[in-house]
Design goal:
It is a single chain. It is built from four helices and 21 strands. The chain is mainly beta. The chain has one domain. The strands form three sheets. Strands 1, 2, 3, 4, 5, 8, 9, 13, 14, 16, 17, 19, 20 and 21 form a 14-stranded mixed sheet that branches. The chain has a five-stranded mixed sheet with strand order 12-11-10-15-18, with no helix packed on it. A hairpin with a 5-residue loop joins strand 16 and strand 17. The longest helix is centred in the N-terminal third of the chain and has 17 residues. The termini are far apart.
């Protein structure tokens, strides 16, 4: 009985304490009308939804180093054969793609749209020669020895199907008007009625082959320079919410995208996240769906094309995917989609 009375007192006390308090702010969940309005806005900005113009079936030249053989080429136990090829050009052709569009409404009455893409791509290469290395274990030894290498200088083509994924974000918020709080005199921003959504910021896009679960060094930053102008640097990430520069993990106002002139030659310098001997990765650039160009040692230039907001792609590919035929080392690449604003012709 005492326990029962004590429970009643506790409940009554809680009711007294909470009585008169305002209920907590309700989490804004969005309405069907909000979703319709936001999807309509997305449809009015088709250039921001474009993520497949980086796949170009035209073969781009690749300057790969001569084939060498090291102890790391012995992948099998016992006698084994390793086949390498020297690739001199490559192409990427889109086979299929799918997109999951996710709308996330926040307490502050904003909406972030996630564009999550999955790509199926045909990676085609042209090789100038192939080398077949034969390894064996000497009697009583545990270390493989390269016995002979057969060189075939007959050129040819190979292709493999690869899958990649990634995402970019688009940020919306309703139009707000300034009002004066009659109680405090402070200036506040109040949502205009009826509610009208507007596109405010977008993110850059990062894509992974085969997927983001593979932990390998990626791109640290990309430096872009047009003519005598000061260079622009895009960083991999920034943890500072008020970071004023360009970072792949930060939303950016569409009015403050990097802007260049049509037909301008853009110099590109790509910094990789690990020391590179020049042979482990190949770096490519493409703009607005035009032909890919290789950036030798991560540096080179590309002529910009298009008008308005277009995509500049930076691709970093691990060359093992090209060198090895047997065993197949897979296809590992990192791709940055950088939206830029192309102004008038020079």
């Amino acid at each position: 009985m005492k326990k029962y009375l004590l429970s009643l007192l506790i409940v009554a006390g809680m009711l007294i304490i909470t009585c008169g308090e305002e209920p907590p702010e309700k989490f804004y969940e969005g309405t069907p009308e909000d979703s319709v309005a936001i999807y309509a806005l997305l449809d009015s900005f088709p250039e921001l939804l474009e993520t497949i113009d980086g796949f170009i079936a035209i073969f781009a030249a690749v300057d790969q180093a001569a084939i060498v053989w090291t102890v790391n080429d012995s992948f099998f136990k016992g006698d084994s054969t390793t086949v390498k090829q020297r690739v001199d050009s490559c192409a990427l052709a889109l086979s299929d793609s799918s997109r999951f569009t996710d709308l996330w409404f926040a307490r502050d009455t904003t909406c972030t749209v996630y564009l999550r893409d999955t790509f199926t791509v045909i990676d085609s290469v042209h090789y100038s020669e192939t080398h077949t290395g034969y390894y064996f274990y000497p009697s009583g030894d545990t270390t493989t020895i390269l016995d002979t290498v057969m060189i075939n200088q007959t050129p040819g083509y190979r292709a493999k199907t690869i899958t990649g994924e990634g995402e970019r974000l688009i940020f919306f918020e309703p139009i707000r008007e300034q009002e004066i709080d009659m109680e405090t005199g402070d200036t506040i921003w109040v949502i205009q009625e009826p509610m009208q959504w507007v596109l405010k910021r977008i993110s850059y896009g990062r894509y992974y082959y085969p997927d983001r679960g593979v932990e390998l060094p990626g791109i640290v930053n990309v430096v872009l320079q047009a003519g005598d102008e000061d260079p622009d640097t895009i960083f991999s990430s920034s943890d500072v919410d008020t970071f004023p520069g360009h970072a792949m993990n930060r939303l950016r106002s569409i009015d403050s995208l990097l802007t260049y002139a049509a037909g301008e030659t853009l110099e590109i310098d790509v910094s990789i996240g690990a020391p590179d001997d020049g042979d482990s990765v190949s770096v490519f650039a493409s703009c607005n769906g035009d032909t890919r160009v290789e950036l030798g040692d991560g540096s080179g230039e590309i002529v910009l094309s298009g008008s308005g907001i277009v995509n500049l792609y930076i691709e970093m590919l691990y060359n093992e995917a090209y060198y090895y035929v047997t065993p197949d080392r897979g296809y590992i690449a990192r791709v940055w989609l950088i939206p830029i604003n192309i102004g008038g012709a020079q």
